[in-house]
Design brief:
heterodimer; A: six-stranded antiparallel sheet; five-stranded mixed sheet; about 45% helix; elongated; B: alpha/beta; five-stranded parallel sheet; 5 helices; globular
């Protein structure tokens, strides 16, 4: 054994190769002896090992080039992208902020690297209320919306104390299954808000301008209908009633269209006035009297004994909901039908519950899942002479959801429908 | 006899209120802008029906604010009469006693609400 190890020629042949390899140089090949000897397998083995190492090095170099290329690509995307991108480590310390982010926030790299994001960039609500740091950096706009910041845009405050409305998305960063920080993408939404404001203003003005002639028409016809038989020919009276009725339909349509737009953008401004829901229902029934008379439908209002019928909510919006339900009940009743509106106070849940019951056409089974969809009309009414837009129940459902009330119905085609509605007697925050 | 001040720039609309209120026994005076309304408020007034959009630089909110800040006038009930449906919160915050969306309200209902507020006064 000792003799074999001491074979000097093997050491002489392989030493330069190992010496170069120890310095990272694998370019040398093994000089395999021509004559047969017992060390040939060793020479060949070392050569194979060198070949494999060279191959692995080439693969690693290629992988390195690929990573560099990818990094360059990502970096140039991050630097050229219009949105601000910030990466934070687990402690919320800023590790990278792209140029768009720097520009939006008015920061240069020396001013933020190594600082906590929550300290470098304050986040606040529309009214200037600063969002506490423990709620951040998870400042995902969507998460804030579900936390009750709906309708309140969030703002980032710049170094120079100016601020801009922002929308953000936050994604966690993981490495080998462990959370290593966050990446926040943010965008200035001033322009969107301006456009939204323009649209809101346009809607309000358009609604105002539509309503002005509608109210004049309403009152003109009300005045005409009060004229005595001598002043108003009897033949004309039904036509004026017709006009009056259509005018009310138009008014209701303008209200519903405007509500659809505001509800879909969650821009409902509720006032909180104490009013008597029973009185509201009586007013609505009076307004719909002519519809009921035309179909000879009897409308009854019942209040469960001992029920307090006051609500502290937006009277007009509640009226719009009740009007839609009552108007539908009359509209879809058969001739000589009956509509019952019952009011019942649920003192335990501090709710006021309503039932609007008709014995009319009912809702076909297949249509039931769709009745709250915008513009949906039941298959048994869409071809009938009964006018409708398919907006009413969408508006009703949207308001009830907005108030966190309850709405359900039971219905049998050809036998009638009952809507159950429960509203909080007092709205604390909407 | 109770006196109502109508502040409304649309003469047709103003006329409707006037006729309905007079038929119910009220005395009515009319103004079509804020400065005329202020002059008329020098005289005892029992209720104001006030439009929001008015000509002449000052709107219904300005007059509402002036009335509710004035020691002599602040007890006068004010009903905002408008076709703007998104201003009720603002109007109530300033001190409006009622807010009526014109299209949604019949002349009889307007008279009822006037009566109710005058009785509550």
């Amino acid at each position: 054994m000792a003799q074999a190890i001491n074979q000097p020629q093997v050491v002489v042949d392989l030493y330069p190769l190992f010496a170069a390899a120890s310095l990272g140089d694998f370019s040398k090949d093994v000089n395999i002896p021509q004559q047969e000897n017992e060390f040939i397998p060793l020479y060949v083995g070392v050569q194979v090992m060198v070949d494999v190492i060279r191959e692995k090095i080439a693969e690693l170099e290629q992988a390195n080039r690929d990573v560099s290329l990818q990094l360059n690509k990502t970096f140039s995307q991050l630097t050229s992208i219009g949105e601000g991108i910030v990466t934070l480590d687990e402690e919320g310390v800023i590790r990278f902020l792209n140029p768009a982010g720097e520009k939006l926030l008015g920061l240069s790299d020396g001013e933020y690297l190594g600082r906590k994001w929550v300290d470098a960039v304050p986040l606040e609500t529309e009214t200037g209320e600063v969002i506490e740091s423990q709620l951040r950096p998870f400042e995902d706009s969507a998460a804030f919306s579900s936390e009750g910041f709906i309708g309140n845009h969030l703002y980032y405050r710049r170094k120079d104390e100016s601020r801009f409305p922002v929308t953000t998305t936050v994604s966690p960063l993981f490495f080998e299954g462990n959370r290593t920080g966050h990446i926040i993408a943010f965008r200035d939404i001033s322009r969107e808000l301006q456009l939204e404001q323009l649209k809101d203003d346009f809607l309000s003005i358009a609604a105002h301008e539509l309503r002005t002639p509608l109210s004049t028409m309403r009152w003109t016809m009300e005045s005409l209908m009060k004229l005595s038989q001598e002043d108003l020919p009897e033949a004309v009276r039904p036509k004026i009633k017709d006009l009056y009725n259509n005018n009310l339909i138009l008014i209701s349509l303008v209200n519903d269209i405007l509500s659809v737009s505001r509800l879909s953008e969650q821009k409902i401004e509720d006032s909180k006035i104490i009013f008597d829901a029973k009185e509201s229902i009586e007013e609505i029934v009076k307004e719909l009297e002519m519809d009921a008379q035309q179909k000879k439908v009897q409308v009854k209002i019942e209040v469960k004994e001992g029920s307090a019928t006051q609500l502290q909510m937006d009277k007009r919006h509640v009226g719009q909901v009740l009007r839609n339900l009552i108007s539908n009940a009359i509209k879809y009743s058969f001739e000589n039908g009956e509509v019952l509106i019952s009011i019942n106070q649920d003192t335990q849940n501090r709710q006021l519950c309503f039932e609007v019951i008709d014995k009319g056409m009912g809702i076909p089974q297949a249509d039931k899942p769709h009745i709250y969809k915008r513009f949906f009309r039941g298959s048994n009414v869409s071809n009938s002479q009964i006018l409708g837009t398919g907006l009413g129940l969408f508006v009703v459902k949207s308001y009830v959801d907005h108030w966190r009330g309850r709405l359900s119905f039971t219905s049998e085609e050809g036998k009638g429908t009952t809507f159950h509605l429960c509203l909080p007697q007092k709205i604390d925050a909407t | 006899m109770k006196k109502i001040l109508i502040v409304e720039d649309n003469p047709e609309t103003s006329n409707f209120y006037q006729q309905a209120l007079q038929a119910s026994g009220y005395t009515v005076v009319c103004a079509n802008n804020v400065s005329t309304a202020k002059q008329l408020l020098q005289e005892p007034t029992d209720l104001v029906l006030l439009d929001i959009m008015l000509p002449g630089g000052k709107n219904g909110f300005d007059l509402l604010q002036d009335i509710k800040k004035d020691e002599k006038l602040k007890s006068i009930p004010v009903i905002m009469m408008t076709n703007l449906d998104s201003e009720e919160k603002t109007a109530r915050a300033i001190g409006a006693d009622d807010y009526i969306l014109k299209t949604d309200t019949s002349l009889d209902q307007i008279v009822e609400r006037v009566k109710k507020l005058i009785l509550e006064k």
